[in-house]
Amino acid sequence: MANPNGRPQVDNPKQSVLGVRVTAEDHEKIKQYASDHHQTISQVVLDGLDLLYSKEETKAQ
Fold first, then answer.
1. Cα distance between residue 29 and residue 23, in whole Å
2. Closest by Cα among 39, 50, 18 to 30
3. Considering the domain boundaries, does residue 16 fall inside one?
4. Distance CA 14, CA 57 (A)
5. Residue 4 lies inside a defined structural domain of this protein
């Protein structure tokens, strides 16, 4: 089924929104990191979550 706005459908759409309170300093650090690495803030946060999961998997082995 074609999407009316022309975007292709994805297998696992992101439907949940997460709000996080951070200090102004942390917000600036995240924004700067995202800018330096050509990512969105969401991508930076999700990459950080992936790192935490990887770290846990390494501990379990």
1. 10
2. 39
3. no
4. 24
5. no
pTM of the model: 0.75
**Residues in the chain, total:** 61
The three-state DSSP-derived secondary structure of the chain is CCCCCCCCCCCCCCCCCCCCCCCHHHHHHHHHHHHHCCCCHHHHHHHHHHHHHHHHHHHHC
The pLDDT tens digits of the residues spanning 8-48 come to 888 988 899 999 999 999 999 999 999 999 999 999 999 99
**Domain assignment of residue 5, yes or no:** no
40, part of any domain:
yes
> Domain span at residue 40?
24-60
